[in-house]
Amino acid sequence: MAHVRKTIRDNIVTACTSLSTTGSNVFRTRVYPLAAGNLPGLCIYTTNEDTALDTLSATRNVERLLDVNIEAWVRATTNYDNTLDTICKEIEVAMAADSTRGGNAKDSFLIRTEFDYSEDGDRPVATARLTYSVIYRTAINNPETAT
Fold this sequence. Notes:
It contains two helices and six strands; from the N terminus they run αβββαβββ. It is of the alpha+beta class and 147 residues long. β2 (41-53) and β3 (61-75) form a beta hairpin. The two termini are 15 Å apart.
């Protein structure tokens, strides 16, 4: 089995696939920039995870606070702000449909949205990065199963 973190990330990819604006242009990476043919599109990846002991019994549990980024990419000469806002709305609605990420998390919620723009090339590229906090718990010796 996989780490619960991967299971949560997979759940988010599934939730964000087939949105009206981005369709199937959903990628599990942040390493490679998206090609023009894949825009508008989404990149979904994890960045940070804080942990703390939740119990001090013989079978200790760890509460985990995971940051998941969903980056929306748009390439256009006009209306890219409006397109990003539409994509953000679609992501927020899709993510709100299941805050437990398929039963693997206690909760998940949007904590930040950041915007960036690049004027390189013939058409600007605009991005919105939505950061979700996902709270989940595992036994200290079993990161493959949510508790």
